[in-house]
Amino acid sequence: METDKLKLEIAALEHQLGLKKERLNRIQNGCKHDWGQTQFVPDYQEAYYIPSDREQGIELGVDSRPGCYVDAENTRIWTRTCRTCGETQTTQRTKKTLSASNVPGCGCEQEVPDFGG
Ligand SMILES: [Zn+2]
Q1: Residue 2 C-alpha to ligand 1 middle, in angstroms?
Q2: What is the pLDDT of residues 42-87, one digit of tens each?
Q3: Which of 6, 41, 46, 110 has its CA at 20 to 30 Å from residue 56's CA atom?
Q4: Is 31:84 a contact under the CB 8 Å cutoff?
């Protein structure tokens, strides 16, 4: 049967996939990481409307959920990729840091992406 053959092939591929993921993890976990340039990749989500249960044809009587509008949202996202192992980190968090200044005593606070460690 063709499906039996496909099932066997899928099982073999899944086994290979597991081994490769494990290998990738081992390399990336052991890497000291040499992070490349941090990229700013903002994600803009347009405003949208979630129809009420009634509008979706769901009848729940008194518990019927009303429709609602969701505002447009700009999510700030930063990524960086390791030059050695290719691991990519993504963050939406920032932290305040003192920027280095050439003028002594004149550091100013700056917001930088926080990749956590
Ligand atoms: Zn690395």
Answers
A1: 42
A2: 889 899 999 988 888 887 677 778 899 999 988 999 999 999 999 9
A3: 46
A4: yes
